[in-house]
Amino acid sequence: MNSSIQIKKVSPTTQDFSIFIFQSPYSRAINVGFIKKSNKPTFIPGRLNYGVPRMLDTHEATVQILQTAVAKKILKKYIPEKISTLVIMREAVACNLPVALARSGITNHYGDAFIGATHIKGAGPIRTDYRYENTEGLTKNGLWIVADSVCMGRSFLPTFTSLFAQGFIPKEILFILPLATRRGIEVFAPLLKKHGIHATFVAMGALFGVGDNLYNLPWGHPDTEPLDTRDQDVFVRMYNDKLCVGGDFGNYYFAPPLAKEFYNDQLKELRITPHIPSAKEVFRIYTKEELLMR
Asked: What is the pTM of this model?
């Protein structure tokens, strides 16, 4: 494997499902930052990695995860007709799982399913509005590959409760998680165990701790389990230990002006003055192969 790509097995879930943390220049570009090429190279923090470039980075990281030994061991157990993808919109559209599978050598998989679930914020706890369900592409008794971030399990729990109740029950699920918390995984893992489903989780960068609002995932949270402590150190030095690594991921991907507005509002609310390092300073921490340069 390319030396700039890292994957590490960490403590399993309470139900003994395996959890891995993955990091590469592409995943680092979304959760720490990347180098913008110019006459004077510039370090761009991940929180300022907006729109289509961020989507492409997420897709490339997804392809890399599917090409790890961990994923290959799972994939080779199933013929393509027994493999489905499940995307909980909107964020995970960026993973582009069908294309990522094809690029990893698996063509003509069974199909693709899409779930529309959105978070309702306002008075009281954050809730999930389950709006849309497309299930034609789901194989039964095979492998599902699921892409989405998980914070408190608000989207995953109603999604799997609904699908399992309709008789859509896979043998195994591979989860690819751009952002993830151990706490969120533990919310819905018992449901998988109840139905006898084997599960493997691969998170990008870290398993994050959850902020007091039960929504934000700061690199500096004491519960965060980083694969590479350099990533945590660089982000915290830029922003302190309070700023969420992802912000509002829906707007991040699909409405960059709103993402930037949200970012600026968070800086103001948390009274953060960013200290963004120069490219030269960053290269004292990472090799050029460990950072995405574009």
From this structure: 0.93
